[in-house]
Design a protein that fits this description.
mainly alpha, single chain, 6 helices
């Protein structure tokens, strides 16, 4: 699997777990039909995945010359700031932002593979960490 796809899969799980940990579970909304059974890890393991995602990504982006890419990662991926607003907050042109976005996904995706964060299913099957 390509590093970008690895990143997107891990980031989707990260977002879902962040919402789960904040208590925002859409299946509880009685006006919205449930999508059926949705597996949820125990709270401690979910917190570990969220922490590992952030730590591994920071490690992948630690090069001193990648300071702007780390800023992009924190603003856009961790805080979930809207795309146009994130471009302004990072302080680069849209073309540079898009280029950095691709580099961040590739670098983090490679590191997620190496560190065992991907696939998430295997991560949650591992015990004794």
């Amino acid at each position: 699997m390509k590093p970008r796809e690895v990143f997107e899969t891990c980031h989707a799980r990260y977002r879902g777990l962040r919402a789960y940990l904040k208590g925002q579970m859409s299946a509880i909304d009685l006006d919205t039909p449930s999508a059926g059974y949705q597996w949820r890890p125990d709270r401690a393991r979910a917190e570990e995945y969220v922490a590992d995602f952030e730590m591994i990504a920071e490690r992948a982006l630690r090069r001193p010359e990648w300071r702007g890419r780390r800023k992009l990662f924190r603003i856009y991926f961790l805080h979930g700031v809207e795309y146009r607003r994130a471009i302004i907050l990072v302080g680069v042109s849209p073309n540079t932002f898009d280029y950095w976005l691709g580099e961040v996904k590739k670098a983090c995706g490679r590191e997620f593979l190496r560190a065992g964060l991907y696939p998430p299913r295997r991560y949650f099957q591992m015990r004794g960490l």
